[in-house]
Amino acid sequence: MKHLIDIKDLSVEEIDDLIEVAKDIINHKEKYSHKCDGKKLATLFFEPSTRTRLSFEAAMMELGGNVIGFSEASSSSVAKGETVSDTIRVVGCYSDIIAMRHPKEGAPYVASIKSEVPIINAGDGGHNHPTQTLTDLLTIKCEKGRLDNLNIGLCGDLKFGRTVHSLITAMSRYKNIKFFLISPDELSLPEYIKRDVLEKNNIEYVETKNIEQYMKDLDILYMTRVQKERFFNEEDYVRLKDYYILNKLKLKKAKKDLCIMHPLPRVNEISTDVDDDPRACYFKQARYGKYIRMALILKLLEVK
Ligand code: CP
């Protein structure tokens, strides 16, 4: 049985296969509408979510399956003191696959050790978010036509932004990728990712605080929200939350075919005047999320 806890649980070949299946689903939805008849997905969300939970649920429904679960810990027996391990063992009696989000880093891994059904990490604290990364890779493949030879700007909260950590890990396995890490000092990429992923794999990167400095070089600009829920004090959050606000003016020197991405939710970091720019891909990105999660459910349930 296979789980998806970290994006590295999938080989490059497996990721490329998932992307191909997702593209086939987009073009031939009817072919897939009964693939998961009789199957149940459980969504266990111990942290808030709109896209991840609802796209997983829509994905399973569009495959013909059903969905059970909870969207906050307070409505489950965790509120009475039940452990994650016990919760997973029990939910595995009622479902065929579980997507789980938890504020504690490593919680989905702990869950997978005891689970009798596949576990999908739907985000664990400030650590990883592998299905957002699959969404991002499908978006890049569809919008840019390739996953190699890309200059990727990552902007905002690179410290706590789990989507950034998983995306760097995934993209570092493709050829000729250069990262532009754009953040204030306090929100810079953790040292362990620079050391264990970028430097270990000889991936070129630069760090800057200035969003406009390398704008003309970028093929992808991946904006992120400052992760309020991970801050220890409100004062630091208030000081940093509007550090970057992407607007039309800042895009003046950007390439005509730049792809602007954001895992969403957005707060202030992209001005709404950018939404109509043909280079704004973030709402398309949310849509791609459902299709790649359909492909992932099929893979983990071993449905042909
Ligand atoms: N991108 C993302 O994880 O969004 P949600 O928090 O709404 O699931």
Verbal overview:
By secondary structure, the protein is of the alpha/beta class. The protein has two domains: 7-129 and 289-300, Aspartate/ornithine carbamoyltransferase (Rossmann fold); 130-286, Rossmann fold, CATH 3.40.50. It is 34% helix and 15% strand. It contains nine helices and nine strands. It has helices at 12-27, 51-62, 84-91, 107-114, 130-144, 162-171, 191-199, 234-240, 282-300, and strands spanning 40-45, 66-70, 97-102, 119-124, 150-155, 177-182, 204-208, 220-223, 259-261. It has a five-stranded parallel sheet with strand order 7-6-5-8-9, with helices on one face. β5, α6 and β6 form a beta-alpha-beta unit. The chain is globular and about 55 Å long. The model has no long low-confidence stretch (mean pLDDT 96). Residues 49-52, 123, 132, 263-265 line the site of phosphoric acid mono(formamide)ester.
Essential attributes:
single chain, about 300 residues, alpha/beta, Rossmann fold, five-stranded parallel β-sheet, four-stranded parallel β-sheet, 9 helices, 9 strands, globular, binds phosphoric acid mono(formamide)ester
